[in-house]
Amino acid sequence: MNFYSSYLSTYLERDVRQIQSVHDLNLFQAFMQLLAARAGSLLNLNMVAKEAGISFMTAKRWLSLLEATRIIYLLQPYFRKISKRVVKSPKLYFTDTGLLCYLLKYKDADTLGSGPMAGPIFENMLIIDQLKRQFNHGEINQLYFFRDSNGNEVDLMLDKGQEVELIEIKSSKTIRAEFTKSLIHVSNNFPKFKGYVLSMSPTALYLTKEIQALPWWQY
Fold it and tell me: CA geometry: angle at 171 spanning 36 and 46, to 5°?
């Protein structure tokens, strides 16, 4: 906790003020905490601005600052028409789950595990792990999430050109058949795909011919 307190203070006092003029650092930190509470969710920046008591343009500028300094990552939705990718809401993640937990005031793993953000933080961790894996291996697969008009959603989609990988992330320790529901619905949009359910279960098994359940650390 002391590390992240110092880290945040250094970031606010040095990096933020050097890159952009932010006069009220306490308000900026409150803005970060409001974003942290939305980790793993669709970003409604207008709502965040209202809750923070700042203008939408200020919120947009601060969000860009956080993205530019690699504090947050915005996962874009997949659409066949590329133009739609820039007008639909992205999902918000923090690149450092330790900082995310600090902002949400989770002091230890037990508190986190029993809290309402356990699932979103687990999802956040795996999304960012995949992003880091792409970077470290020099891969150029595009990362998206997928959501259709019927509300069927897949947490992560890797566009590999001729094939896509569809990934559902569950913090559960038990694999359930219903975990494949969204994967099956979404897979109808793609002629060739591989599906994965990543969870905290230690068991690896095929749920269907194309969908495999894996412990998150094996993916």
Answer: 25
Q: How would you label 87-112 residue by residue, b for 16+ Cβ within 10 Å and e otherwise? A: eeebbbbbbbbebbbbbbebeeeeeb
pLDDT of residue 36: 97
Domain boundaries, the chain: 1-120, 141-219
Residue 161: helix, strand or coil by DSSP? coil
pTM of the shown model:
0.89
Per-residue pLDDT tens for 97-147? Answer: 999 999 999 887 777 777 789 999 999 999 999 999 888 877 767 899 998
Q: How many CB atoms lie within 10 A of CB 86?
A: 10
Which CATH number among 3.20.20.70, 2.160.20.80, 1.10.10.10, 3.10.310.50 corresponds to the domain 1-120? 1.10.10.10
- Token output for 107: 């002091």
Q: CA 193, CA 182: separation in Å to the nearest integer?
A: 14
Query: How many CB atoms are closer than 10 A to CB 179?
Result: 19
DSSP string computed for 199-217:
ES-S--EESSSSEEEEEGG
* CA dihedral (54, 60, 61, 67) positive or negative: positive
Strands of 153-159's sheet in order across:
142-147, 153-159, 164-169, 193-199, 211-215, 205-206
